[in-house]
Design a protein that fits this description.
It is found in: Cytoplasm. Helices cover about 45% and strands about 15% of the residues. The chain has about 290 residues and is of the alpha/beta class.
Amino acid sequence: MNKFYGTGVAMVTPFHSDGQIDFDGLRNLIEHLIDGGVDYLVSLGTTGESATLSGDERKQVWAFTAEVVNKRVGLVAGIGGNNTRELVEQIKAFNTTGYDAILSSSPHYVKPTQEGIYHHYKAIAENTNLPIILYNVPSRTGSSISAETTVRLARDFKNIIGIKEASGNFDLFNQLMRDKPEGFLFISGDDPVTLPMMALGAVGVISVIGNALPGQLSAMVKLLLKNDFKGAQAAHSKFVDFTRLMFVEGSPAGVKTSLKYLGVCGDTVRLPLVQVSSGIADAIIQETKKFA
């Protein structure tokens, strides 16, 4: 089975109270996730607060993560941006040791046309030997990768192997599943709709809530991969309130609150993100207790 089937987790980046990277906390998180049975990890995606890390800090996190993971599970590096030329240089300089793929979000803020998105990813694909997973998250980027563009990229570049879809657009999903090449991976990037997306044919999820609940989420995804939708529905229903609370005051502040309660790492985030309010924190802790 492809190493990107199943449960992937977009890892948070733990920080000390002074805002410095907490590498002991990151080690704890990695072990927590591997012990929980996840299939692969994503280092420095959106959930990892990559936008607030310096270039040197990102290199340190990537190297440390690869060393600790030590090929025990699959490992993906989140490398995205809206300056294609600069992004290509970052990817060419990236130390691929220990990494199995790159996850790259569509360019944010500049709102390129579909042709611009195509040529952005073309430039990436032509400058790395690693497999590439596209990431469509229009709520953050301001534009969406159309099904036609995704299929075009999948057909034209063999190292573009899949897409993390977080658009919430089921019309797009239907078209993509109908038209994509065989073997191209359709991956949920949106925890609340992982079950229906996998019913359409998604091969798994790259999750936020999995940071806190890797074992429970992995169990549900395994049921879905076995087409046991009745069994998975019961697990899915248990996640509803927990998942809502993870995002009600922004991510990853919500899941970091849960991780702090679980003793994995602290809940510090970097500005412009802030910690959740005390009322939401109390609610998150109460929901987390239900899974402990």
